[in-house]
Amino acid sequence: MRLQLVTSDSSLVSADWFNAMFTMHGTTMIFMVIMPFGATFFNFLVPLMIGARDVAFPRLNAFSYWTFLFGALLMHAGFLIGQVPDAGWFSYANLTAAPFSEGKGLDFWALSLQVLGIASLAAGFNFVVTIINMRAPGMSMMRMPVFIWMTLVTSILLVLAFPIITVALIELTADRQFGANFFNTAAGGDPILWQHLFWLFGHPEVYILILPAMGVVSEIIPTFSRKPLFGYPVIVFSGIVIAIMSWAVWSHHMFTVGLGAIANSVFTITTMLIAVPTGVKIFNWIATMWNGSIDLKTPMLMAIGFVALFIVGGLSGVSHAVSPSDFQQQDTYYIVAHIHYVLFGGAIFGIFAGIYYWYPKITGKMYNEMLGKVHFWLMFVGMNLTFFPMHYAGLNGMPRRIYTYAEGFGWEGMNLLATIGYFVIVISLLIFIHNFFRSIKKGAEAGHDPWDAPTLEWSISSPPPVYNFAEVPVVRGQDAYWITKREAAARGETVPAEPHVDPSTIHMPSPSYWPLITSFGVVWIAGGLLIDVGWDYIRFPISFVGGLITIIGVIGWSNEPAAEEHHEAAEQH
């Protein structure tokens, strides 16, 4: 995409393939990169940070993973047969109607997103129950790490938001495959209905993407500032307020649709108001660093980069909130610049901060600090070089989603800078990949607590044993591990990692194939509807087989005993 746009009148790729590329780029980055990265941290860290041995429903967790994997593979399988979605990641009606989008590309898109939604719902319920029910003794809600709070808020948003897009995708599939008319104006349907349903899901989705990164940054900044988080209750409350208000701003994506002055005014006000709790978080992070003993290791650099870039993205977002100015910015590269400052400068920098911060815990090895800092600076410079010029290109009139442009508009310079910046980002990511895998083999041993961190996961060995904690810890305050280390230091002692015990003496769930079988059945249901051999009645028996596999998987799963031999050993112990 960047090579296509680097000069005017380029013919590197066709218009159709350019449409397919930006559609799959947006869909993949949102649903198959940022969201599963957040889920990765949830899976690994939630039990460790709340003092639990596992999530509440480990097999539901496995089902969520396999369903996500199969859904992502199904989405990309369209590339193998040249059937790729091409209506943008938000797939506005009536572009998605069969006459305007021929082939099966959008059917792959709609059905794969349904499968991915099932995976997200399963994970969301799991983490809500885990956090509410499985915290260590003494860990009240207001003693939970901020990352756990943001996981809880994100999971609740997931559970409430995904049913809305599910309804919209069912309607889209019905229109395309069964001749329904939800979005067909000629038959009394309404294309604007899709926009309302999509953005009523889509704006909470934006916070589903960014709140985990905010939680990561809220753990890293206190650790490397050697200070407790400033205003912990306010940061927690701000995250909750953001989640509640995210349901009241969706129509700022629709200012130019013609909803009328009253609707535009209301959503202008609510969109400005949602900037307030976000700004509160930023001031609290800055106040945490203020007068701290700051250690600029790579995780801290990434966290500071997150704060700086998210401020830029937030400010451009406030300019969108003003509906008259949004009329000028709508569907220009100014919007592209904004979304990338909040989702690349925000979510992606937060994800990398978390990867570097918890890398020693996950692998037991230290990464190369110099390569980490080179990665940060190249990615920081490359990101600004790529996306900041897009503000100017957009205000200068460059529409988004165009595959080429004529000479004379004055957009060549900005696009050249953006393409150069993109290659700087690629170089930075290659350095990260080299550092990641080289350090697994050759990195120094990390020890259990290399950062002198405040939360429970650093009290056990790196990487953690399968049972996490030999003895479930007792929490006596916020920043529980700092309290333990401070009391030990007062006695002139150090705190070693918790000793290992024989895993057979601890009751843990045994592995199961049933979640995998159930997930396979779910994706088969979706895949059956995509098979087109000229006879419509062939698709339904194929999907029915998928439903049968799913039912068999659920029955087998329900009747499988839970690790009885471990339970007996634990009782004897």
Automatic annotation (TrEMBL):
Subunit comment: Component of the cytochrome c oxidase (complex IV, CIV), a multisubunit enzyme composed of a catalytic core of 3 subunits and several supernumerary subunits. The complex exists as a monomer or a dimer and forms supercomplexes (SCs) in the inner mitochondrial membrane with ubiquinol-cytochrome c oxidoreductase (cytochrome b-c1 complex, complex III, CIII).
Subcellular location as annotated: Membrane; Mitochondrion inner membrane
Main location: membrane
Classification via InterPro entries: Cyt_c_oxase-like_su1_dom, Cyt_c_oxase-like_su1_sf, Cyt_C_Oxase_1, Cyt_c_Oxase_su1_BS, Cyt_c_oxidase_su1_bac
Pathway: Energy metabolism; oxidative phosphorylation
Catalysis: reaction(s): 4 Fe(II)-[cytochrome c] + O2 + 8 H(+)(in) = 4 Fe(III)-[cytochrome c] + 2 H2O + 4 H(+)(out)
Chain's role: Component of the cytochrome c oxidase, the last enzyme in the mitochondrial electron transport chain which drives oxidative phosphorylation. The respiratory chain contains 3 multisubunit complexes succinate dehydrogenase (complex II, CII), ubiquinol-cytochrome c oxidoreductase (cytochrome b-c1 complex, complex III, CIII) and cytochrome c oxidase (complex IV, CIV), that cooperate to transfer electrons derived from NADH and succinate to molecular oxygen, creating an electrochemical gradient over the inner membrane that drives transmembrane transport and the ATP synthase.
Protein name: Cytochrome c oxidase subunit 1
Tagged with keyword Heme: yes
Tagged with keyword Protein transport: no
Gene3D superfamilies reported in the protein's UniProt record: 1.10.287.70, Cytochrome c oxidase-like, subunit I domain (1.20.210.10)
Any one Gene Ontology molecular-function term assigned to this protein's record: heme binding
Enzymatic class: translocase
Organism for this UniProt entry: Geodia barretti
